Amino acid sequence: MARLKARYNDELKAKLQEELSIKNVMEIPRITKITLNMGVGAA
Question: When you count CB atoms within 10 A of the terminal residue's CB, does the N or C end of the chain come out lower?
């Protein structure tokens, strides 16, 4: 999670702000929760 959050903050936030023409930093979407699901088939 730490690597994903760091990459989001360092690289993706700036790109999102530029693409969506967002002027206020507080309007940029934030990552709050990541959920992973994994199926194990026939247990």
Answer: C
